[in-house]
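User: What would this chain look like folded?
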Amino acid sequence: MKKAIVVKNVSKKYKLYNGNKERLLDLVTPKRYGEDFYALTNVSFEAEKGDIVGFIGINGSGKSTLSNIIAGILPETDGTVTLNGEAALIAVSSGLKEALTGRENVELKLLMLGFNKHEIKKLEPEIVEFAELEKFIDQPVKTYSSGMKSRLGFAISVNINPDILIIDEALSVGDKAFAEKSLQKMKEFKKRGKTMIFVSHSLGQMKEFCEKILWLEYGKVRDYGATEEVIPRYEQFLEEWKKMNGKQRKKYRNDKIAENMKLLQS
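Assistant: Here's the prediction, encoded as structure tokens.
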């Protein structure tokens, strides 16, 4: 089968500063200031066309960072990402302009994606209806709840018919009925052979929807494989994680990050 996504040795580095003074000095002086922090370390995985891949991992593991890199919103520091087709990211308020109305956001997003006025006029009612925002579509997005923003973002993304759909916690906000409606839409995409990445803390949704699971742990791939194989291992880890106190969790995190840094330096 044809590869839809190829992520090879991707790392993402940020600089952490102790205030704006350090940030400025790092820009204007030869001396290095700030601490390097790697949100992702040598991440590699491949997805075939039509695959549904779930990203799992405890908070701070790099799931959203990787999603944003695949979607082209964030640049990788090292490594390569190759996509076979256009990708669309659905995340709470992703890409929405707070000062604009919902309708203006729809029109702006479609214009940026290359749709003409005739195509926008045809798509706009479908997007508004799917988002269930008819009464609020002409209100500024800054007045929307997180659930309303998520619904609008989801409605725009699924109606532009992308080749690769990336859903980052977009179904974790809002009402259950809309989440079910969105899952049904995703199942339609699945039947049409679309490739999807699904980021969620809901293991139930993962089991129901995903065929493969990528388990990230503090920026490193811990496991990648079939859902029925990876999820039980992750659930066992979560049981152990819940038994740890704050001090033990901090040590576990620091040890894992130190291991990742050693791999980078070797």
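The chain is about 45% helix and 25% strand. If you want, I can go into more detail on any region.
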